[in-house]
């Protein structure tokens, strides 16, 4: 009987593995992924999936409700504006597609207050390299409603924010040097 013990032990191990004897870490990762997907589907936050490209533009994969698009840009279309209701929760997720180093090409999303001078803000931001191109001047910082961190090639950043209660047009920009001037901007239209 002792000569069959290793054989029986091997069969028992195979049976346990086949019946879901996976690691606790693997099970935990699967549960976390499922929970993240469920949260995203039920958190009542509309997500705008945008891509920052080397042509210094915000683009999207196609037309969706609540956004206005422009001309075709490769596999994408230009993101011109986002429409939101007053107080609506939005998530802006930005993926940067670039093979350039981060020092040469990175993108962010900066939503400004309604009366902000976006050109002056972008000019000041271009000089704020040590602060990831977000101006440190209090007057300019007070013009920011929401902003992401910088995302270099292959990176994704996101911000969840509440649209302003006051209806009107709010400009959003990429504050990386030269990007606003090259047209990496758009409008958040808050309307009833």
From TrEMBL:
Native organism: Fodinibius salinus
InterPro entries: BlueCu_1 (IPR000923), BlueCu_1_BS (IPR028871), Cu-binding_ET (IPR050845), Cu_oxidase_CS (IPR033138), Cupredoxin (IPR008972)
Molecular function in Gene Ontology: copper ion binding; electron transfer activity
Protein name, per record: Copper binding protein, plastocyanin/azurin family
PROSITE patterns the UniProt entry points to: COPPER_BLUE, MULTICOPPER_OXIDASE1, PROKAR_LIPOPROTEIN
Annotated signal sequence range: 1-20
Keywords: Copper, Electron transport, Metal-binding, Signal, Transport
PANTHER family: AURACYANIN-B, OUTER MEMBRANE PROTEIN H.8
Domain Blue (type 1) copper residue range list: 80-191
Record Pfam families: Copper-bind
